[in-house]
Write a structure and sequence with these properties.
This protein has helices spanning about 1-20, 50-55, 70-85, 100-110, 125-130, and strands at about 40, 45-50, 60-65, 90-95, 120, 135-140. It has about 140 residues and is α/β, with parallel strands linked by helices. The strands form two sheets. The chain has a four-stranded mixed sheet.
């Protein structure tokens, strides 16, 4: 029962984000391609949007920071969803905080059990592209 509740909560959050996108600047991006990007991850790999979309139905990009309590609260649910659906949905968490060094991100991810790719938005600028005003913010991209 608990797993169903968490999945329903995640689905409701995703639906709320999609609905909210229709009322803000983000609406300009609905239905339009997102430019490919590459970002180095804390495990030494490179995450690319195009590569993720070749292997998955969609990508969830989570914009966050290590100092953000709501971000910290959502990560256990994001991790659970990632573990359940990683064959269909790629997840990447990008910190928008310029002072979040790779070492700080690695320590945070390890201490919070984050197994999905983690990197820095300073390489992609997605927070600026989408006009993100608060975090956590998740962006869903499909093929």
């Amino acid at each position: 029962m608990r797993k169903t509740w968490k999945i329903a909560l995640l689905a409701a959050a995703l639906l709320a984000m999609l609905c909210a996108a229709g009322f803000g600047e983000e609406a300009d991006y609905l239905g339009k391609p997102l430019a490919d990007f590459a970002v180095g991850t804390i495990d030494g790999n490179t995450f690319t949007l195009s590569g993720a979309l070749e292997a998955h139905d969609m990508v969830l990009i989570n914009l966050w920071a290590t100092w953000c309590p709501p971000c910290e609260a959502e990560f256990p649910y994001l991790e659970e969803a990632y573990e359940a659906y990683s064959d269909r949905v790629a997840v990447v968490a990008l910190s928008i905080e310029p002072s979040d060094t790779p070492e700080a991100l690695r320590e945070y991810a390890d201490s919070h059990g984050m197994t999905f790719p983690v990197g820095s938005d300073t390489e992609t600028g997605l927070a600026n592209t989408f006009g993100v005003m608060s975090i956590p913010t998740s962006i869903v991209v499909d093929r």
